[in-house]
# Entry
Amino acid sequence: MDRLVFITGASSGIGQALALQYHRAGWRLALAARRAGEIEAWAKQQGLSPERYAVYAADVADPGGIVGAAQRCLATQGVPDVVIANAGISIGVDTAIREDIDVIARTFATNNVGLAATFHAFIDPMTRRGSGALVGIGSVAGIRGLPGHGAYCASKAAVISYCAPAA
# Structure
């Protein structure tokens, strides 16, 4: 098996857990995150074979940065079989506080615009090949809100709607 998975938010949490599961299943990894050094340290700690993974430093909230990382992946590793837009943030907000409006904007830039930008570079190559899966990580919080986390809940509701199959 020489399948490839591209995962954002791979420097911690769900991203690392997904990377480890795919690695154990024999997949090659394309791992993207702002903290590329943390991915490298984790990969060495886990004993991942350097020839089976590549790390791409990118902030999904910067569309140019994540599109560039995706293009580097395509050039060096080929077209992924699966792309997982996992990167996300959750920061408590209070809409009555002016600074929290900026937090809301950052949350949507990461959790929603970042998801679309992650998928962007892979759509045409996957379409030409005739296969591939684009996966967005939602949350039950997108269905059932959490007090004080309106931005996160709304952003995850948007992920669920964005990724829902067309009827």
Remarks:
- The chain is about 50% helix and 15% strand.
- The chain has a mean pLDDT of 96.
- The longest helix spans residues 98-129.
